[in-house]
């Protein structure tokens, strides 16, 4: 039964993927494509300001770490958080060491993607969040890793909660240049 549900979810995500080409002029080597239970999100990674974090996101995507991972913390008017492919509830990270902060002057606004961390600025690992709105209190305190270039309408549809009951998921996450 679980296998059938996974197949159905993959097919549902495949249909929007075919209908939605990637944005023109996208550097596919530095972008990730997230097919969710609500549709497709494309994120341009900011290798210019957070090279280590961008490489980590691409590495984990290529390893399949993010596949079927829920959006475990989604706060209306603030952000949608995901990326815990270990425990699926926001308490885990990858097998790799935490990353040193790569703070920048890029402001947190709608569509900006940041790395989640603990109170230790050098504790980002695998989890990230997408902003629904401006979050000036995060400016200079959390690493900006990218921005949504397609699919903010999909982000807006993600089920809210802290924690989320029956959460939406990232069904498949890929580096754009790897998509065949």
What's the pLDDT, averaged over the residues? Answer: 92
Give the domain tally. 1
Given as residue ranges, the uncertain stretches (5+ residues, pLDDT < 50) are 1-19
Helix share of residues?
A: 10-25%
Task: Give the number of helices.
Answer: 3
How many β-strands, per DSSP? 9
Strand content: 15-25%
Largest β-sheet summary: 9 strands, antiparallel
Q: Assign the structural class, choosing from mainly alpha, mainly beta, alpha/beta, alpha+beta, or little secondary structure.
A: alpha+beta
What is the C-alpha radius of gyration, as a whole number of Å? 15 Å
CATH superfamily: Cyclophilin-like
Q: Termini distance?
A: 28 Å
CATH fold group: Cyclophilin
Spatial arrangement of strands, main beta sheet: 3-9-1-2-8-6-7-5-4
The top-level CATH class is Mainly Beta
Give your account of this protein's structure:
This protein has helices at residues 2-19, 51-63, 152-157, and strands at residues 31-36, 40-45, 69-70, 73-75, 79-82, 112-115, 128-131, 144-150, 169-175. The chain is an alpha+beta fold. The chain has a single domain, classed as Cyclophilin, CATH 2.40.100. It is globular. The chain starts with a helix and ends in a 5-residue tail after the last strand.
């Amino acid at each position: 039964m679980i296998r059938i549900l996974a197949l159905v979810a993959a097919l549902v995500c495949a249909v929007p993927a075919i209908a939605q080409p990637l944005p023109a002029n996208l550097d596919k080597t530095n972008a990730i494509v997230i097919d969710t239970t609500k549709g497709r999100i494309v994120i341009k990674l900011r290798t210019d300001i957070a090279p280590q974090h961008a490489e980590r996101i691409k590495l984990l995507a290529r390893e399949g770490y993010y596949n079927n991972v829920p959006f475990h913390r989604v706060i209306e008017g603030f952000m949608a958080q995901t990326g815990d492919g270990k425990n699926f509830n926001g308490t885990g990270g990858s097998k790799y060491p935490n990353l040193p902060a790569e703070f920048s002057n890029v402001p947190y606004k709608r569509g900006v993607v940041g790395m989640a961390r603990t109170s230790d600025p050098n504790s980002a690992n695998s989890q990230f969040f997408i902003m629904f709105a401006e979050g000036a209190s995060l400016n200079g305190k959390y690493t900006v890793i990218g921005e949504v270039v397609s699919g903010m309408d999909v982000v807006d549809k993600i089920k809210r909660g802290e924690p989320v009951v029956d959460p939406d998921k990232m069904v498949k996450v890929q580096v754009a240049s790897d998509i065949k």
